[in-house]
Design goal:
By secondary structure, the protein is mostly helical. The protein is 65% helix and 2% strand. A hairpin with a 7-residue loop joins strand 1 and strand 2. The chain starts with a helix and ends in a 30-residue tail after the last strand.
Length: 302
């Protein structure tokens, strides 16, 4: 533990300079990054006009998830400071603000996409709004950058696996060895980082004495959504691997399915709930499916 504290203290000294941007420059940067993600989506209309809207949106999501995961790792483990062994609430440095603005621009783009297509259930709109609020709160308060970047990295690290899982399923390779490996890794990585690591950071933030009540409520709300998502993921894993290692004695195939369709939409015994929102398998007949950066999409036992 002493070695860890020494490393985090020295990394704090190595970190980039404190961020001293004005509010106007921060708003301009947010507009710029939102336009960047939207432009990436629009460019694909010319490059891959035959692809669905969902396919193009998942390319943006995959790019965002991979990029901010690497940047968060760099900020936490190379440049510093790390979230472990330091006093919470340190002032933001330039790298942390850059990561937050880049991620916030993506979430604004994806929220607008969802509202335009009107395919998202309320829970996912709430998820996006809470994410936007949390990142904007960190940027304009000028602190909590270390904790937020750690959470960004923890929540986005499973995103590339989620997108790869969907692309494999869409191409018909979900039942291959690669598909099984990606599926298993997604379950493990989601639990280890988004549930356990994010939970640790949330407890550190909530237990620290400060008057940021709205920020604490938002942090607890976001973690609660992650916990709900992981509950259904574990249900999916239990069904899938339970069948794999403990096949049922009778030969009846279960007719029900559980679909985590960015809103935890359930379909049991062929009877769907209010609506399916998005079909998650990426058929050409239904292109509307947002792959929001850190969400669970269409997990069905096979």
């Amino acid at each position: 533990m002493e070695v860890l504290r020494y490393w985090t203290h020295s990394s704090t000294l190595r970190g980039s300079q404190l961020n001293e941007e004005t509010a106007g420059s921060k708003l301009f940067a947010l507009t710029l990054y939102t336009t960047l993600w939207a432009s990436m989506y629009r460019i694909q209309l010319s490059l891959w006009s035959h692809r669905t809207a969902e396919w193009r949106c998942r390319v943006v999501s995959l790019t965002h998830g991979t990029l901010v995961t690497y940047l968060s790792y760099y900020s936490q483990c190379v440049e510093g400071p790390s979230v472990f062994g330091i006093e919470p609430g340190l002032p933001n440095n330039n790298t942390q603000v850059f990561i937050a603005k880049l991620c916030l621009g993506y979430f604004i783009f994806d929220l607008v996409w969802c509202l335009c297509y009107q395919t998202e259930p309320p829970i996912m709109i709430v998820h996006h709004v809470l994410s936007i609020f949390g990142m904007a709160n960190m940027i304009f308060q000028g602190k909590w950058g270390t904790e937020l970047v750690a959470v960004i990295g923890a929540t986005e690290v499973s995103n590339p696996l989620l997108q790869l899982r969907w692309f494999l399923k869409n191409a018909g390779y979900s039942k291959t060895i690669l598909g099984e490996i990606v599926d298993f890794l997604f379950i493990i990585v989601f639990g280890a980082f988004r549930f356990l690591l994010s939970g640790y950071v949330m407890l550190e933030y909530v237990s620290y004495p400060n008057d940021d009540v709205l920020g604490k409520v938002g942090a607890v709300s976001m973690f609660s959504l992650s916990a709900v998502f992981y509950y259904y993921i574990l249900g999916y894993a239990k069904k899938k691997y339970g069948r794999m290692f403990f096949p049922p004695s009778n030969k009846k195939e279960e007719s029900g399915e559980i679909t985590l369709n960015n809103g935890l939409n359930k379909q049991v015994n062929g009877v769907s709930s209010a609506s399916r929102y998005r079909n998650g398998v990426g058929t050409k007949d239904n292109p509307t499916h947002s792959p929001a950066a850190n969400n669970v999409s269409h997990i069905k036992p096979e």
